[in-house]
Each structure stands twice: as structure tokens, then as C-alpha cells.
Design brief:
Elongation Factor Tu (Ef-tu), domain 3
Length: about 280
């Protein structure tokens, strides 16, 4: 009998309730993959992680059994997969923002130089913040709502000030908001829910470490965001391209990166924004 293939949304509660414990042969295969997470070879661990990810949320009961495993790498990676599956089922939130580069006090709007972002819709509320120094919390200057993208390539965001005085906003103030990205559609085969491979999550983040003396750089993008060794990332500061980085290793806390081409480590700063750079 040909298995029925149905396309559904991960966010539907019916998907979660329809998950069943995998059959014995599948449990054995998953257990073997989890055991590989202890392998000293990082490439073997990463491949096992990818194979577990492809198995989908149906293996959640097995992953939970290993949350008390003695190996910290196994515990961390099983926890990441469980978090990833939960995000894929329910959607995820993402902090977006950028620097103010133009303010019109008379018309009450401001512009942010950033490209199109998934989940950013008209009415999204932004906090306009001003840096007060390393020892103080940022000062909230105003509240603004996203109105629309402008420019042929949607290179700018237009925000309308809704609370506070637009005249109090300065160029270089920061606008931040939290957007919700809905879960992708997946396919259900033989009553086992699998993760749709058609689209990777939106890979955005910040530079977390710049160590010029030791020649090291790291970013805060982690496994659940879909990042992989070899991914090319564009670094942007205040709407301008700084350079390109390539992922060299992915860890539970973030990723190690190296510079590409003419980019040099001193060119980058902690807090620079990260975006996908695409194929070379």
C-alpha cells in the first residue's frame, strides 16, 4: 500500500498529538546516532546531528531519555534538537533592528537602513533606544511602528513615531523589535512528522568575539538557527558592508568564524550585525 503523504503545518496541534513512538528499528537507529554524538571527531558528531535533525520531532521521546546522559556533549545536542523541534512546531521569535540614519521631525517618521526581514509586518512596534555607555541601560527615546519598506530592493524601513517626540530621536539611535516567524510546512509520512528541508531558518545575529591578538572571531548564531560549517556571512555596520566571514565550527553557544578575501579581523567589531552572504 502506498503511504499517504499529506502536507500540514507544524503549528497545528494535531501534528503534535499525532506523533507516535518510533518503531523498534527506528529507535535503534536513533540510539546509534545519539551514541555518535560522543565521537571525538567533530565531523562525525555534526553528521549524526544532521541525521537526527532529519528524523524530525517523532524522535523527541528518545532525545528526552538522553537529557540525563553522562556525556555533556550528548545532553547539549539533544537539548538543542528538542528546542529546535519546538521552534519548528510553534514558530520562533527574532529580534530585529538597526541604526537610525534619517529622522523627519515634522512628518514624524524615521528610516532604518536594513533589507527585507521575515516576520516584519506593518504595525510591528519598535523601541527607539540611545546608548548610555557600557555601565548603563540604554535610554528609551520613543516608540515607532513599522510602516513599509522603501526603495526598489526594500533596502530601508520606514517607521512612524507613535509614542514620544520624533524631535528627540537622533541619527545613530537604535530601533529594535521582536517579530514572530511562523513555522514552515512539513510532510507527514507513515504518521511520522519530519522537518521540511525546503527552507533554512533566517540566519541573523551579531559578532560576539573579536580577538585580534589570538586571531579569533566568534558569532552568536547557533545550531538551531540552521547554520553550518562553510556558510558565508556578510557583516554589516550601520547599513554598510564591513566584510565577509566563513563559519569554521559550530558550537552550542555560537560559531567560530574566519575572514574571507580581503577582510581582516581588525575590520570587525563586537556587535556588528550578521546576515547570510549567499554563494561565492
Amino acid at each position: 500500500m502506498i503511504p499517504l503523504t499529506v502536507v500540514v503545518l507544524l503549528g497545528l496541534s494535531a501534528c503534535a498529538s499525532s506523533q507516535t513512538v518510533p518503531p523498534q528499528d527506528e529507535r535503534q537507529r536513533v540510539a546509534a546516532l545519539i551514541h555518535l554524538l560522543e565521537n571525538p571527531d567533530v565531523d562525525v558528531r555534526d553528521q549524526a546531528m544532521e541525521d537526527l535533525r532529519k528524523a524530525g520531532p517523532a524522535i523527541e521521546p528518545i532525545l528526552r531519555e538522553h537529557l540525563s546522559d553522562g556525556d555533556p556533549e550528548v545532553v547539549a545536542r539533544c537539548g538543542e534538537l528538542l528546542s529546535e523541534f519546538d521552534i519548528l512546531r510553534n514558530g520562533r521569535t527574532q529580534i530585529v533592528g538597526g541604526r537610525v540614519f534619517h529622522v523627519d521631525p515634522k512628518l514624524g517618521f524615521l528610516l532604518i537602513k536594513r533589507g527585507r526581514v521575515e516576520g516584519l509586518n506593518p504595525g510591528t512596534r519598535f523601541r527607539i533606544l540611545r546608548d548610555q555607555g557600557a555601565d548603563q541601560e540604554p535610554l528609551q527615546v520613543a516608540i515607532a511602528e513599522f510602516e513599509k519598506y522603501i526603495g526598489e530592493d526594500a533596502a530601508c524601513w520606514k517607521l512612524r513615531v507613535t509614542e514620544g517626540e520624533s524631535s528627540a530621536i537622533r541619527v545613530q539611535d537604535t530601533a529594535t523589535a521582536t517579530v514572530r516567524i511562523p513555522p514552515p510546512a512539513i510532510r507527514v509520512r507513515n504518521n511520522l512528522v519530519g522537518v521540511a528541508p525546503a527552507r533554512r531558518p533566517n540566519i541573523v545575529g551579531k559578532v560576539a568575539l573579536v580577538d585580534v591578538d589570538r586571531g579569533l572571531m566568534a558569532i552568536d548564531i547557533r545550531v538551531w538557527q540552521g547554520i553550518k560549517v562553510g556558510d558565508r556571512l556578510q557583516v554589516v555596520r550601520e547599513g554598510k558592508k564591513v566584510g565577509v566571514l566563513v563559519v569554521s565550527d559550530v558550537q552550542a553557544w555560537g560559531s567560530w568564524v574566519k575572514t574571507e578575501g580581503d577582510s581582516r579581523i581588525p575590520d570587525f567589531q563586537k556587535g556588528d550585525q550578521i546576515e547570510p552572504a549567499g554563494e561565492k
